[in-house]
Amino acid sequence: MRAFVDLWNEICETRYGIKDPKYRRFRYGVQVNSLGLTEQQPENNVYRILIEMLAVTLSKNARARAVQLPAWNEALGLPRPWDQQWSLRMQQIMAFETDILEYEDLFDENPAVERKVAALKEDALAELALIDGMGGAVEAIGYMKSRLVESNAVRIGQIESGEITVVGVNTYQTGEPSPLTSGDDAVMNVDPTTEAEQISRLNTWRASRNPEAMQQALDQLHKATLRHRSSRCAFNCRSQSCVTTGEWADVVRQAFGQYRGPTGVSASASNRTEGLDEIRESVATVSAKLGRQLKFLMGKPGLDGHSNGAEQIATRARDCGMEISYEGIRLTPKEIVAAAQDGQVHVIGLSILSGSHISLMQDVMTKLEQANLGHIPVVVGGIIPEDDADRLRAMGISRVYTPKDFELNQIMSDIVFLADPDHQAGPISAQ
To answer: What is the CATH number of domain 277-419?
Structure first.
């Protein structure tokens, strides 16, 4: 963050001509990265969260103005209020029980820190020059997304190989059972009646509206979209006529379509195929049995935007020689089934990290049966408690993966097995 603050100050002054240092000050809030949280020995995550918070709080000149910390057990399920409170207490203890706020920057004139900052700035400026050469951030959005996916793929590979140590995952795996994760209430379970009650309230509210005024507002919005004035009209539409966000957004989608950002997952295999020879041979063998290349559909249903898992599975499947179909986040079950039907896929993989895996998978499996696609094996990954995993298997899900299943090659072998016409796919727990 010290490098970021320096770059922000320099670019604001030299590129945009901002002379007053006060207006060049970099003010930021940060959500501490939850990518490194582990399902194995989850109590260790408390220390990981603290260490990552130190990175954005210790240096006064690069200190975050607001910090949002994840809960220690977010790799297990939805955190309870107590878990969220624990993360809040971490910030409060740092702010009020230490003297960190009483001193100037502790890292100023530290030669080791200055060398690291200089190296980071040099690399960042080279990357910015490359992006500028592409025409700027908008034109380079696909490139930037692909670099993020590639970077995470390298990290996953290093964890698998042991080059990066993750305590409790690929080393120091034995230990005493944690009392924090025992019991039925170790994670928060949302009462399924909550959704039904909210839908009932929404339907009652809709029934109380003036349908003529509502339709008139939507018609006005439709006309406004043709004149590219939809933003203001959308606001008036929902504020004056009791139109839901979904209703006015559908009108805008009809006029402009729906933007789908780049996934960062290309169809072309990368050069990271070391250690994949055996799986690639298996893919080739099964593809020959199928009469065409094994095709894997990676879907991301629901509203959560955590796409890392889906991207890494799709990327590894591609590098193992499979044909992949991945359209990015926030697909509906209907869209996933349509993609499976149109693409003639052999295995469907779904990633769900919103906690809504039961309802979404019930919907997907029902729609697959209705489309006569119930024979296609389905695998699911996400933040899924074991009791829910049993329910998913009972629905007919062939494999259920959680963050502890970090060895992607094992998942790839499972997919190949499920696609093999010589094997009978069935609900078997991931091992």
So the answer is: 3.40.50.280
